Amino acid sequence: xxxxxxxxxxxxxxxxxxxxxxxxxxxxxxxxxxxxxxxxxxxxxxxxxxxxxxxxxxxxxxxxxxxxxxxxxxxxxxxxxxxxxxxxxxxxxxxxxxxxxxxxxxxxxxxxxxxxxxxxxxxxxxxxxxxxxxxxxxxxxxxxxxxxxxxxxxxxxxxxxxxxxxxxxxxxxxxxxxxxxxxxxxxxxxxxxxxxxxxxxxxxxxxxxxxxxxxxxxxxxxxxxxxxxxxxxxxxxxxxxxxxxxxxxxxxxxxxxxxxxxxxxxxxxxxxxxxxxxxxxxxxxxxxxx
Length: 290
Prior knowledge:
The protein has one domain (about 1-290): Protocatechuate 4,5-dioxygenase, Chain B (3-Layer(aba) Sandwich), CATH 3.40.830. It is α/β, with parallel strands linked by helices. Strands 1, 2, 3, 4, 5, 6, 7 and 8 form an eight-stranded mixed sheet that branches. The chain is built from ten helices and eight strands. Helix 1 packs across helix 3 (about 55-75), helix 1 (about 1-35) packs parallel to helix 5 and helix 8 runs antiparallel to helix 9 (about 245-255).
């Protein structure tokens, strides 16, 4: 199992770099321009949170770009990125399963928050999750010039319904007080390659995307209520990778109202060498302070 996860991680990481290279300079600029259709800086200035997907950059790049623009247009001096951390080691995967089954997260070696400047585990360094974010951030800040906000990345793991107990959460809360916050989520993985039976799988057509959005918004309603464990289990059920990141930013910002403002998708069948439908929904989500 460990070897399979290791190879999968390397395969996905390489494919993300390849997709970014294929996007090229003009493709990058096109996505940055398209991202301007969303005016979201006020959401961040007022203490809200924006969530961008991390699917294939050629599909969701404009949604990532929208969040880059919002951060820069907000005038903030500091940006806190609450990121997903994928389970690409056997111990992380088994720990995640044990916690989802009601196990004690405090007994797991992977329980905690990773990120630059934090001693301990460094699985985040090999994760593909923020490749697209880094790309659009670097290109747009260089294009704009001037003072660049400081970016701090934090990768929580095994919130388990109690984000307030994560080691280091008080330090992240202190950072959040002086930052605007963005996060990332691929909140719906679906189809044969993700373990759904053919008869229960549907395509990412217009109806399929509406269905995916409805399911994602079911999770938003749970998180709005501060039901962290309910949200954790929702993410398990619908194969959302944001179970930890979502709990943490909701805990940091308190009561908010969320909604999906744009949907995209990535065909993941080639990535996993599986038949269609095998796809990931890319949702750009806005959370406003209540």
